[in-house]
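Exercise 7. Given the components listed, write out the predicted structure of the assembled complex. Treat all entries as one system.
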Amino acid sequence: MRPAHLTVRRLALTCAALLVLLAASVAAATLIGPVRASLVAALAPGGAATADHAILFRARLPRVLLGAVVGASLAGAGAALQALLGNALADPHLLGVSAGAAVAGVVVLVAGADPVSPLVPLAAFLGALGTVAVVFLAARAGGRTSPHAILLVGVVCNALAASAIMLVNAIASYTQAQGVLFWIMGSLSSQSYALVALVALYALAGAAWLSRHAHALNLLAAGEEGARTLGVDVERTRRAVFLGASLLVGAAVSVSGMINFVGLIVPHLLRLVLGPDLRLLLPASFLGGAVFLVWADTLARTVLGASELPVGVVTAFLGGPFFLWLLRRSLRRASGG
Amino acid sequence: MTAPPAAGAGTSPAIEAADLAFAFGAREVLAGVGLAVAPGELVGVVGPNGSGKSTLVRLLAGLAVPRTGEVRLEGRPLAAWPRRERACRLALVPQDPRLDFAFTVLEVALMGRAPHLASLGFAGARDLAIAREALARLEVGHLEHRSVDALSGGERQRVFLARALAQEPAVLLLDEPTTHLDLRHQTGLHDLVRARCAERGLAVVSVLHDLNLAAAFCDRVLVLERGRAAAVGTPAEVFRPDLLARVFDAPVHVERHPLTGLPVVLPRGTPGPRAVRASGSSGSASGR
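Answer.
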């Protein structure tokens, strides 16, 4: 049984525990890989020149860190979108928000932007923002969103985005199209600390933005009018989530393409354990999402031995069945059974 | 009628509305309704389905903007209040309160403290004490760990009333607060609300389906008929058989309560043959 209400102490302790778990996960994931690399050799005097050092600190660590940032972003965005829509089925990918970000990213790439330039996350952010607005306007009726509406709008947005990407690819040159395909497929194989830092900056801005509105988002569970009678500026809260979630999704998509289900599974499981209070659930989702994707990517890197699997395949295999279970539960509840 | 009926006892009203009109598109829902509620007063709103009761409450709560007229909270137009300050003075318990996620009973009661707290809303010892007292007064304090999802309709309704009480408002708006409650809790809830009126000068507007509950607990009653005020006054003044029969379009019989002297409204339907036989053989209309 979880405590009846959230205290600052419980918030601090839970976040500290998750931070320790994240640090341990990053360390462990860096040491795990198909090739054996020795931390002792890498850190010994003159170790900077060794192959161990190159593997651990130039190949693996940036990738693990990127995984942590992307996982945190997707899970945090998921938690915020679920609260905004009052629906545990909301997820940046299912809603088509990731796809909207990808379309904008692809357009910028084909127009000639460097994949590592700050333009790509900016475009992805704007694409995500536009899609969130469309989803929100289309899926709501009378201040509520039904699971059916959410799924349908998501299907439509995803289909539109896929077509838009194909269209852009048809116009683009062969080499550009290859590059786009590689980018879309989604992987964390980038090996630049600068990129990690850039994306982390976006993610932190989004996280900070959302966290300020965590309690207003709690009150939104009482519905738009209920929240109003409790003194919440509903429009302002909604805009904050649009902006914050879009920053997070834009950041994640711009470096990793499309990674499914992280934004769905992580906040949902954490809500079952920690309760729905977003003052705790939001930071816990950031940290938990980071841990989750670090391990999902470790699995993707190692499960096939020498060749590696896109991390999106791993999250989809984990998240697909989970989503079906969640959908059944939600539909049963919606039909009152 | 356009002028707000006078509130009792010469104090300035906690909430007053004059000449309220509202329409959904071309369909007029309220027209020319006025109301003034003094601190410590409990005013009931009754009327048949679709007479505009809930719309009136929504206008008083500031959830809808009237076409004409104005609502003033403590003398100041609703729209002129900053959101949070307004929520510290005015609370609403909607007919069917909604909650999207499985918050605990205590968390819900603490939400009533939100307008009084800084933006992250961490409850202090005083807020906890207020929320717990409200839950205890409504006899749901023992459920504080439970998820609101797992409660019965009546328990849930009392938790949301506790949230409104924890808000410590000057004006409390209730939209059919007793629909899910059994007899004991119907009277219990109104006893509690009455006590708050007396102790803290709370002003209450309560939409009620049950005319006898209105007669038993309200200082004054506003009878709505197709969006207009058909009558305002004490239950004894307002619950006249001719007026009620016209407004509700159903024959009624009004008696005096043998203990309190307050009006009791009885429907005059056609009884089933078995009911007639039963009452004839026992010689009394009392009992269940």
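Discussion: Chain A has a mean pLDDT of 88. Chain A touches chain B at residues 1-8, 83, 86-88, 212, 214-216, 218-223, 225-226, 228-233, 271, 275-277, 279 (CB under 8 Å).
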